[in-house]
Design brief:
Layout: E1 2-6, E2 9-16, H1 21-34, E3 37-48, H2 50-65, E4 69-73, H3 77-85, E5 93-94
Parallel strand pairs: 2-3, 3-4, 4-5
Antiparallel strand pairs: 1-2
């Protein structure tokens, strides 16, 4: 898992699964400690598992309780389906895709 931090945006690349959750969790909470609004960009994530999504859901819940916001960007169809199947879509904020004219 590669994590590039650009201010309040974390760009993830690679496989986001149980092996990388600790690393991502630390990066997300550090970003939330420094910024009120944080974006986690999943555009270049090849695969994601339920454990990884639970990390993002827990961070999102904690951010909301603290008056902050965590938004997921670049969620592909598989990620969106997993969010819906697990009902985590109710917990996380997913950025809408831009509509082309």
């Amino acid at each position: 898992m590669d994590i590039v931090i650009e201010g309040p945006c974390l760009r993830l690349a690679g496989d986001f699964d149980v092996r990388s959750t600790r690393e991502v969790r630390v990066a997300v909470y550090e970003a939330l400690a420094a910024h009120d609004d944080v974006v986690v960009d999943l555009t270049h994530v090849g695969s994601v598992d339920l454990t990884a999504l639970r990390v993002l859901a827990a961070a999102s819940r904690g951010a909301a309780r603290a008056g902050q916001r965590l938004t997921l960007r670049g969620c592909n169809g598989a990620v969106r389906r997993l969010l819906h199947i697990t009902h985590l879509i109710r917990v996380v904020e997913v950025e809408r895709d831009a509509v082309s004219a």
